[in-house]
TrEMBL record:
Cellular component aspect of the GO annotation: cytosol
Keyword match Hydrolase: yes
An annotated GO BP: DNA replication proofreading
Protein's recorded name: Exonuclease domain-containing protein
InterPro entries in the record: BRCT_dom_sf, Ribonucl_H, RNaseH-like_sf, RNaseH_sf, TerB-like
UniProt GO molecular function: 3'-5' exonuclease activity; nucleic acid binding
Organism of derivation: Amycolatopsis coloradensis
Pfam family, one: RNase_T
Record's keyword annotation contains tRNA-binding: no
Exonuclease domain location: 6-173
Keywords of this entry: Exonuclease, Hydrolase, Nuclease
């Protein structure tokens, strides 16, 4: 085979099994292996699939990460260069090929010939070890490949590359017969622009996003009260599920910047918001343990010191019972409150069965509908940073997107 450089071991994580059901690649990795079986290069990136992420419990990819990742068309040129002059290798090659063909077909690039000339380590392992189980983990275990982080594209690609090297070295006769006669298509690839964007890799689980306040300019407050209504409206929606997603943090920063609000002014609004919650907590003359925890959770989300909770609770306890006109449009202890008749939309692969959640919600008098409108109360999502069409529509219309756990808590509250 002319211009043969070695092998390109590829692995992908996807939003689902079948491209025909609009499932897309969400992460891809390519590992180069030379003719001796040594790993010479590795490359990986998350991919924005422009839809919900499907089984997140399996692949562990968060929407907060992929929404800032490149789309497939932005890395297609890089992939072609990573494949050029190399035979593609993958564990369960038919699955990876199916999705890669579909992604490139969307760009009017036919990669079926190239992918048909690849090597499947799952089949190769079965030929070398009679009765070998199919999974990558089992194959790696059989040949002594350990220390692998499975269910990430790069981890699986590195594992498959090491597995491939062990199989070729351990049974050169069988491997050689399998590698012979591969179609000479590895160099016949189109040219596409490359290096358009930088790859975006997964963050370690322990790495947290910096607080959104860090992205606002810290200046001396202006004289007079700024118009805060737009910011407060976004803040109300963001705090319904008692977490601020990356999408919501972006929206808060955008509104603050659009209105020219400085960090000190935003912190002032956060203090006022916490104070309104403290007033609501004292409305019945007592503050429960749950209410105090809720205040502490909100304070943390807003970047306020924990001591601030004790301060506002003491001050509001001693304040007159008549509550002044609140600056916050909608404030409630515990976050999301649902009432019979509210319209709800569900999106994403939730931990509980969608049909079960729908039946429970409708049994409590909620309307579970399939599309988002201005009349929608909330969109409950498997991931509040979801990239699904429903979540996108909600953000355009200003409808809050809340986490599944918050939605379930609201359902439980309706039963009390």
């Amino acid at each position: 085979m002319r211009s043969f450089r070695g092998f390109a071991v590829v692995d992908i994580e996807t939003t689902g099994i079948l491209p025909g059901f609009r499932h897309r690649v969400a992460e891809i990795a390519v590992v180069h292996v030379d003719l001796t079986g040594e790993i010479t290069h590795e490359w990986s990136t998350l991919v924005n699939p422009d839809r919900d992420l499907g089984p997140q419990a399996i692949h562990g990819i968060r929407a907060a990460e992929v929404r800032r990742a490149p789309k497939f068309e932005q890395v297609a040129g890089d992939l072609l260069e990573l494949f050029r002059g190399r035979v593609v290798v993958a564990h369960n090659l038919p699955f990876d090929s199916m999705h890669l063909r579909a992604e490139f077909a969307r760009l009017a690039v036919d990669l079926s010939g190239y992918l048909s000339g690849g090597v499947c380590t799952m089949r190769l392992a079965g030929a070398v070890f009679s009765g070998m189980r199919r999974s990558l983990a089992e194959c790696c275990k059989a040949v002594g490949v350990d220390g692998v982080r499975f269910h990430t594209a790069l981890g699986d690609a590195l594992a498959a590359a090491r597995l491939f090297g062990r199989l070729v070295a351990g049974a050169p006769g069988i491997a050689s017969s399998r590698l012979q006669g591969l179609p000479d298509v590895h160099w016949d690839l189109p040219a596409m622009p490359g290096a358009l964007v930088k790859p975006v890799r997964r963050q370690a689980a322990a790495i947290a996003e910096p607080h959104f306040l860090a992205r606002l300019v810290d200046r001396v407050p202006r004289e007079g009260d700024p118009a805060m209504d737009a910011y407060l409206a976004v803040l109300d929606g963001a705090l319904l599920d008692r977490q601020i997603s990356v999408s919501e943090a972006d929206a808060l920063v955008e509104v603050a910047l659009d209105f020219g609000l400085h960090k000190a002014e935003v912190i002032k609004v956060h203090h006022a918001y916490l104070r309104d919650l403290a007033r609501a907590a004292w409305a019945d003359g007592r503050v429960s343990v749950e209410e105090r925890r809720d205040l502490e959770a909100v304070a943390d989300l807003l970047g306020l010191d924990a001591d601030e909770v004790e301060l506002v609770l003491r001050e509001e306890q001693a304040a007159p019972t008549q509550r002044p006109q609140a600056q916050v449009a909608e404030v409630s202890i515990g976050g999301l409150v649902l009432r019979p008749g509210d319209r709800i939309v569900l999106t994403g692969a939730m931990r509980r069965q969608r049909s079960e959640l729908k039946a429970e919600a409708e049994g409590l008098g909620l309307q579970v509908v399939s599309s988002v409108s201005k009349k929608t109360r909330v969109v409950a999502a498997a991931d509040p940073d979801s990239l699904s069409g429903k979540a996108k529509d909600a953000r355009l219309l200003g409808v809050p997107v809340v986490a599944e756990a918050a939605f379930i808590r609201a359902l439980e509250s309706m039963k009390e």
